[in-house]
Amino acid sequence: NGAYSAFGENSWSDRGGCLWLTSFVVTTFCKAKTTGLIDVDEAKVCQSVDWIAGRQEAGGNYMDDGCVGNKRLMGSGDSDFSYTAYICTGLMSLNNSRGCSCDSNALTRAIEKCRDYLGSHTS
Fold first, then answer.
1. In whole angstroms, what is the distance from residue 120 CA to residue 112 CA?
2. Structural contact between residues 95 and 28, judged by C-beta atoms closer than 8 angstroms
3. Which of 35, 63, 65, 100 has the fewest CB atoms within 10 Å, i.e. the most exposed one?
4. Quick check: 76 pLDDT over 70?
5. What DSSP string describes 71-102?
6. 92 touches 30 (CB < 8 A)
């Protein structure tokens, strides 16, 4: 389905994939691809991007799916705002990346909704 899970699909913690981890993996793969040291299957990256976009709430935010046991891994990921900012930063970096190219309407819409959500929650 494009999602990543820390302990695999048959683990107690699997809920169909981890949003934070999937965002982290996709961003890391695309950064690594720019080095030329590894080959990344862009079709899989784009499948993950579509999965991430599909988890976005109607208001543009992302909800913590609870799959990361140690919240310190997520920085200050204790609010919808910071969680959304993390996910959206990753999506925006993909949109401007030389490493991966996902020409996806879902990616474009997700970034627009993120900007609207984050912009409306800052003073």
1. 12
2. no
3. 35
4. no
5. GGGGSS-SSHHHHHHHHHHHHHHHHT-SS---
6. no
